[in-house]
Amino acid sequence: MQRNATTQHPIVLVHGLFGFDSIGSLDLFYGVKQALRSAGTQVFIPHLSATHSNEVRGQQLLAQVDRILAGTGTTKVNLVGHSQGALAARYAAAVTPERVASVTSVSGPNHGSELADCLRKALTPGHLPEQIAEAVATLFVEFLAFIAGTPKIPHNAIAALNALTTEGVADFNAKYPQGLPSTWGGNGQELVNGVRYFSWSGIVGNLRDEGRNALDPLHHFCRAFSRFFTREAEQNDGMVGRYSSHLGTVLRSDYPLDHLDTINQTAGLVRQGIDPVELYLAHAEHLKQIGL
Ligand code: CA
User: Fold this and answer.
1) Confidence tier at 292 by pLDDT (50, 70, 90)
2) 17 CA → ligand 1 middle, Å
3) Which of 110, 116, 253, 264 could share a disulfide with 30, CB 3.0–4.6 Å?
4) Cα(82) to centroid of ligand 1, in Å?
C-alpha cells in the first residue's frame, strides 16, 4: 500500500552517536530517508560536528534549519534526533520554538547515559576497579574501530562523553527543561511553547527471537555495554536507559531494539518481528494527521 506521510513541515533527521554521521559507508539512519521520501515526506539530514557541547551542536543545527526553511519556503521543521541528536533538537526547539513544529527523541539520553558515566570513570584513573575500567575502555575502542575505523579513542569522543554523562545532561536539562517528565519514568508535557515533544526507544532484551541481530556486531557491542548499567540494569538499549530516554509523550520505550537498531543498523540487521523504519513512517503519518 502506498503510504502517505506528506507532513506540512519537513522532517530533519539529526544524528548523534558521538557525532558520527555514518557507520562505515552506511547512512546512519539506514533506509529511513528513502522510506520517508517514498511516502511523500520532505527529509533533510544535516551534518553536525562531534563537538563536546550539546549547545554548540544545537547552534549548528539551528543554522542548518534556517537554510532548510529558506530553501523550502516553510516556516517550521519537525526535528527527529537519534541519540545525542535528540539533545541538539531539544536545544534548537528551546531557543527558537517558532521554527520547530515538533521534537522527537529516538533513543535519546535525555537524562544522561550510564554508559557515558561508566566510560568517563574508566578513563579517569582511580574511579573504577582497574579490571572493569580496562574492560569497558577496550570494548569502547573496539566499538569505535567498528563504527569509524578509528583504532583508538579520539579526543572528540572523550569530549562528547562529558556532554552525555548523567551530570552533564543534568546541567543541560536545567537550562532546557522543555518536554522532560517531572517524575522518573513518566511522560513529559507534549506541548511546550507551541512545540510538540515525543520519544521512543528500546531495550537490548533477551536472547530469544534475535533474528538477524545475532549476526550483527553492533548488537553484540550493545549487549556487552548493557552489562555496565546499574540504575537501569536490563532496562537499557546498551547506551541509554529506558527511562532516561523519556521525553514528552512516550510512544514506547521498551521496543525490542538496541541503541543502533533504532536507526536500523547494521544495514537492517535487527530482531525478528520489528521494523525500525516502520516506526519513523508511522510517526511521520501521525505528525501529518495532527497538522504538522
Ligand atoms: Ca542491529
Assistant:
1) very high
2) 15
3) 264
4) 15
CATH number of the domain within which 226 lies:
3.40.50.1820
Query: Is 237 a residue of the active site?
Result: yes
Look at residue 4 and tell me if it is in a domain.
no
Instruction: Assign 52 to helix, strand or coil.
Output: coil
Is residue 259 part of the annotated active site? The answer reads yes
**Residue 193, phi-psi category: left (phi > 0), alpha (psi -120 to 50), beta (remainder):** left
Whether the CB-CB separation of 255 and 200 falls below 8 Å is answered with yes
The β-bridge partners of 44 are 12
Q: How many domains does the chain have?
A: 1
CA of 266 to the centre of ligand 1 (A): 5
Task: Give the residue among 17, 31, 1, 28 at the shortest CA–CA distance from 279.
Answer: 31
**Three cell numbers at 258?**
538496541
Whether residue 5 is contained in a domain is answered as no
What pLDDT, in 10s, does the model give residues 224-256? Answer: 999 999 999 999 999 999 999 999 999 999 999
Question: In this model, does residue 158 exceed pLDDT 80?
Answer: no
